[in-house]
Amino acid sequence: MLASITAFFDNWSLEIWEAVIQTFQMVGIALAISILIGLPLGVLLTLSGPGKALENKVLNHGLNLIINVIRSIPFIILLFFILPFTKMIAGTTIGVGGAIVPLVVYTAPYIARLMESSLLEVDRGVIEAYEAMGIKTRHIIWHVLIRESRSSIILGLTISTIGLIGATAMAGLVGAGGLGDLAYRYGHLRYEVDVMYVTVFILIILVQGIQTFGNRLSARLKKD
Amino acid sequence: MIEFKNITKVFHTKSKDTKALDDVSLHVKKGTIFGVIGYSGAGKSTLIRMANLLEKPTKGQVFLNGKELTKMSRGDLNIARQKMGMIFQSFNLLKTGTVYENIAIPLKLTGVPKKEIKERVNKYLEIVGLLDKTNAYPAQLSGGQKQRVAIARALAHEPEVLLCDEATSALDPDTTESILALLSKINSELGITILLITHEMNVVQSICHEVAVMENGRIVEQGKVIDLFSQPKTETAKRFVQSIFNDKIPEELVENLKNSGQIVTLSFIGQSSGKPALAMVTKQFDIFPSILSGNIAQLKDEPYGRLVVHLEGSASEAEKAMNYLTELGVIVEKYQNRGESHVG
Ligand SMILES: Nc1ncnc2c1ncn2[C@@H]1O[C@H](COP(=O)(O)OP(=O)(O)OP(=O)(O)O)[C@@H](O)[C@H]1O
Ligand SMILES: [Mg+2]
Known about the structure:
Chain B: Belongs to the ABC transporter superfamily. The structure holds two protein chains of two kinds. Chain A is mainly α. Chain A has one domain (11-221): MetI-like fold (Orthogonal Bundle), CATH 1.10.3720. Helix content of chain A is 83%, strand content 0%. By secondary structure, chain B is α/β, with parallel strands linked by helices. Chain B contains twelve helices and 14 strands. The interface between A and B is medium-sized, with 23 and 31 residues. Magnesium ion binds next to helix 1 of chain B.
């Protein structure tokens, strides 16, 4: 038993380690870019709504339409559908570099949507109190809207991160590697079930860890 | 100080248009506590939100110190707004900020220097009596304490005017009283003009100098608080006074007593409420007065009392007694059940 475990790690530890790194890379980079795009998009989506500070019907409907369209395409289809766009932006369509663009296109609108629902929870009265004190809209966005919804935003980002990990498994199809890809290639195509079990186990730990971290952080930021 | 000129506000919704304000003009003088009272839906909140243009008028102008707010650019309006503090029924504090942060953050955002921020926060927390709660979060405070934080937040900008939208409506009677006392102190000691709206007559009674009564988007009555109490003209005003002086006498009793004399209402303003007027009447005329109901209220500057009295005796003696009372400075009226004639 012990010998077989040792043998397993001798054979696979390098591959698994590499896959873990790739997953972290993809998730990390795609998440960072998605937040940079999704957060302002979510703010814009919220504030362009009816009765809000930057009310703008055309912008609001346009954003809603784009987000809904992207979010209705399954990732695996999106991955191939936007290949030309990926090529244009990243210069390549394969490897980690090629996977980032579709991952961002997939995740950013999702984050924007979750942001919107978080921001809408913020008490209208507090925003009004700040307007009454003569404070500029851009300051209100950061110091009231985002601040007051930060706990809920963290929960949203936790959900997005976990969704992103799921998507990276499929990104293996463009040769980006990662844990999902490892499990698929060896476990499914080559019947190395041990490899599949181990990768699935690592994925479970990862998701569990992220969710727990997100919940704790969110609870700490919540003051009511 | 604040002047509303012919303000009309129409809200358009899908189903209908609502005229929340209908040609309202009002002048709040510097240094006064001005109350606007009215029932729900009268347009009070809409009116007070006009003062800092949280709500834009459909027609009309708003002035602050003679400068027209309704003509200002966004930037100028923001500067003008910093001269007007506002507090709300629901406090509107940042849940994620401590008491300190709730006061300090808006100061920082309006460009108050860092060193001064700390001084101001402490100064105004002391004025509202909350220095010991500096690091508490709103969730850890009572309603009254939250309102004190909101008041400190407003005062910290050192405004000339404080706008209060039902500031005590969410509080219990004791807490209401202490907040009202605080507002009164702010007015007298810091010289801040206060415009407040309320649906509670006791708020007007205890701290306001002047009052306007609103109904259906219009101001139907306006003047000194004592005048509203002693001589309410409109049905609405009478009902508000009635909420403090409940001097309704059972109908049957009224009918009975009328056979043996007159029923009159005697109002005493200020010093005259101290004189033993009724005792004098008993002595000088062939009249037996009996008190059916009595009430005295401390208005902001003077006491105001009211008695409903049955004057038993002949009509001529009663007439003489009433003239005598009038001479003593008592306001004498034939009794009628106030607020009996139903409106709406
Ligand atoms: N944003 C709005 N959109 C549409 N109608 C509104 C809006 N705000 C107020 N109204 C309407 O205007 C009228 C006056 O409302 P307002 O809030 O000023 O009353 P109020 O006197 O403050 O009442 P309350 O004591 O209940 O707070 C009401 O009929 C209300 O329905
Ligand atoms: Mg109101």
